[in-house]
Design brief:
five-stranded antiparallel sheet; alpha+beta; 21 strands
Length: about 625
Amino acid sequence: MAAELVRGQNHPLAQVRLEIRISAGVPVLAGVTLGDEHGTVPGRQWVAHPGVPAPPGVEAPGQAAAEHLLAVDLAALPEAVHRVEVFLALPAGTAVASRFGAVPAPHTTVNGMDGTELASYTLTGLDAETAVIALELYRRQGAWKVRARGQGYAGGLPALLADKGLSDPGGLATVIQEAAASGRAGAATVPTARPEPRTTASPSRADSTAEPVQPPRPSGPQNAGGPALRTSGGPVDYTHPHRTPSVPSSPPSAAGGQPARPVAGDAVGWSMEERLYNQVWGMFEDLARATAAYRGAVEFADSRLEKELDQVLADPRQRLGSAGDAAREAARARRTLLAGQARAALDRDLAQLTAEAEVVEPALPAAYARWDSPVWHTYRAPAEPPMALRLGDLHLPESAPLRIPLLVRMPLERGLWIDSGPAPAADGRVPDPAGLREPAMAAAVALAARLLAVHPPGEFAVQVVDPAGTATQALLPLTETGVLAEPPATGAAGISQTLERFTRRVDLAQMAVRGGVAESLPADMGTGRQLLIVNDFPHGFDDRAVARLRFLADDGPAVGVHLLLVADRADAAAHGPLLDSLWRSLLRLTPLPDDHLADPWVGHAWTYEPSLAPHGSRLLQQVLTEVARARAKHW
């Protein structure tokens, strides 16, 4: 049974040789872009359009037409290609309407070469757009899926091509329009054989990825909030490309006949650390999409039920009596069926992601691992700084047992704020603010311990400002092991001296960078990165100290000075809007689970949980003792 997709939904592809049919009702241009894991198209040669030879694995149509047939051989695509996007555009200089909202909604179907319909999608909801990405075929865990995109561009084809990272998108758009108008078709025949595989699993430079998950691909959370459903398909092939599993498993994947099992590090990257980082964010992306598809399908089922019930009430013949009762019961049954199909599809996706998480989590290095991971029990100081750091875990209400690590790139590009203020609990009650200060500081200490542990000896230092000395107990793992650069600063004098020292460091570092002598800092300042933990802000801070803190938050990260604020924003209300920019510059975290984080791509409210050591254990002390020992040996 074919899957009828709504915007954002995906569906597994059981075949690799495909036909994509497009019915638009009016003449439109059709083309294909081949992109890397993030959708970036490296050059014009990776755009299949009229008038030029098509890239391997793709056959694009010629001139503008109301009906199009595209052929794609996923097995013949270059190894660097992870995303195949089908785009449509209204032709320029013709009598065709000037926007997609004025023409019939284009309909797309994805068929196997044997004619089997695998998925379909109708592009509804378009208005002022003159170009649109209709479908996306993408590769995850060695298996291909199709996603209904429906992403329109009011700026037309130039805006679409610019979004793919192409240079001179306006010039390329003009070439495509002119080629389609002249009817020149230069597409090549779709290859039928897969190219020879690479002899190594290491990615080529074209495979390497940069900072991931920017909208519409989530790089990480930020402070915050169709007509049918997909159906279950064949099992997804989790086999790593060019890797033969050591233990056979069944059933085999529908696409390639290889055993289906998750593999840690099954993503592009130059190192295992980078591959795991990309894989984790791929899991985040898949969970976001699967949940969006489920919520959209249930919303559609609810709206259709409401519409059908209104129709029953509007018909005098069915408003009363057994006929009306039967019609209402049938409408509710259809809603239940649709919601059940949506939940079944979500459960299938969650099962796949859970199986992947069970393999990935034990393979994570210390910087990415939970505190209860065995990697910490054999901890030794690293020789290189980490690529990223785990700040905690994320999950959604529909997938509560499944946790996705919240990884941020290192070095930190913004400060952190652990909110010690009260937040309403699930039952509506507001916890005691005093009771949150201790767990907030404990979360800060756990983060500081992780930062110290994952950097080479001498390359990261931590200092603490504790104005009233209220964090003495929480700071014991740091103070007992002697890993703090100096004892915690207390009182107004301690705040002033510490902020003066850090401000001076940032000033001198900025001057050194501007002068091209970044390594020429005074000997007493060191060359390693610094983390300043400020507890109970703004207690003990005068206006001068507040101004210095804002300076450190804004300018410190670029020169290796990072801020970790433990504060209740309500306590700083007396400063008014003066501190608004400070709060906005910091990534807000919480000591208890809270759904305050939202990805900018789908907009889900993700529940964040801090990464803490097992309750009652002395794991932090053991790890920090090893940090101190390695530091003493280094010096």
